[in-house]
Each structure stands twice: as C-alpha cells, then as structure tokens.
Amino acid sequence: MSDTHLIETVLDNERVFDGKLLSVRRDRVRLPDGGTAMREFVVHPGAALIVAEFADGRLVLERQYRYPVGRVILEFPAGKLDTGETALATAQRELIEEAGYTAKRWTPIATLHPNVGYSTEIIAVFLAQELTQVGANLDEGEFLDVVLMSEVELLDAFDRGALTDGKSIAALFAWQRYRAKTR
C-alpha cells in the first residue's frame, strides 16, 4: 500500500533555537491536499537505552531526578548519542558511566520513536547480558541511584504508578517480546 497520499513536503524551514542538547525547527510544509501548514519540532541527536539483565533475570534501573517533570523517575539507563558515535557505542558508554556495568553480550531488540508529534528522536534499545560491575563514572552534574529489580517488581512499579517513563515502559515490552521469542 502506498503512503503518498499522506506525505507532507518541506517548502522552507528555519532554526528557532539551538541549544547544547537539542534544537527547535519550524518548517512550512505542503499538505497532501495542496494546502500549507507550519510544523514545529525538536531536532534530537538520537539515544540508546539499555535493558541490562543479570542471569537471574534481575534488571538494572536508575532512579534520577528529572527537572522537566519535577520528580524522581524510575528508568532504564539511557543517553544521547554523541556526534559520530554509534548507538551501540553510546549504550556501552552509558551502561558504564551511569550504572557501573559492562556487558559481554549486546543484542539490539527495538527501535523507538518516543515523541513522533514533536521530535526527531530515535532510541535504539539494546539488551545487555553477562554483566560485570566496574563502578559508575557519572557525568558532572549527574546524580542517580542504581536499583536492581525483577520483572515482577518492575511490573508492580508500573501498576502502582512508580514506572511512568514512556521509553522504559516501551523497552520493558520489547524485552518481554524478545524473551518470549527466544526462550
């Protein structure tokens, strides 16, 4: 089935804001019916998220204060891609920096578009296994607690409203689907 009847075409664009982490762009587009519209969106470099799993099934998570929502959030380790860095390299770097683990086995299990209405962000989700603790090396200004949780505990956290991070919920689903297919 062709999607040409849904596609919008960029007529012109402008950068509205350039920051350290992201930028905002405003595009004027031609709609499929010939009309025009404005589209404002965040340009994001992309990210990697890690579902780090011990042999006993426990998962590595983090509790971190997230300023935009004003609360401590439970989430899987993740981070943005640095310029020229692959998603796997980002995942490996972030697992060490934030959680203090390395992994011998890395498997890509999902690709997420977490905010399709207003962001170009793409998150590569990796399963990390055969973990070794090496000690965290947090970035300056980064503060978090590492917690180990079973699948049951994590699902209970979701049920209680303690797991609200969308990318982590999607990654949990991807991990469950991956396990169901490979066991």
Going by CATH, what is the homologous superfamily of the largest domain?
Answer: Nucleoside Triphosphate Pyrophosphohydrolase
Helix-strand makeup class: alpha+beta
The whole-number mean of residue pLDDT values reads 95
Categorize the overall geometry.
globular
Order of strands, widest sheet: 7-4-9-8
End-to-end distance: 34 Å
CATH class identity of the largest domain: Alpha Beta
- Main β-sheet description: 4 strands, mixed
Task: Give me the Rg, rounded.
Answer: 19 Å
Which CATH architecture of the largest domain is right?
Alpha-Beta Complex
Number of strands: 10
Order of helical and strand elements: EEEEEEEHEEEHH
Overall number of domains? 2
Instruction: Give the uncertain stretches in residue-range form.
Output: none
Give a verbal description of the structure:
- Helices cover 22% and strands 43% of the residues.
- The chain folds into two domains: 4-43, no CATH class; 47-182, Nucleoside Triphosphate Pyrophosphohydrolase (Alpha-Beta Complex), CATH 3.90.79.10.
- By secondary structure, it is of the alpha+beta class.
- The strands form three sheets. The protein has a four-stranded mixed β-sheet, with helices on both faces. The protein has a three-stranded antiparallel β-sheet with strand order 1-2-3, with no helix packed on it.
- The longest helix is centred in the last third of the chain and has 17 residues, at 166-182.
- The chain is globular and about 55 Å long.
- β1 and β2 form a beta hairpin.
- The protein contains three helices and ten strands; from the N terminus they run βββββββαβββαα.
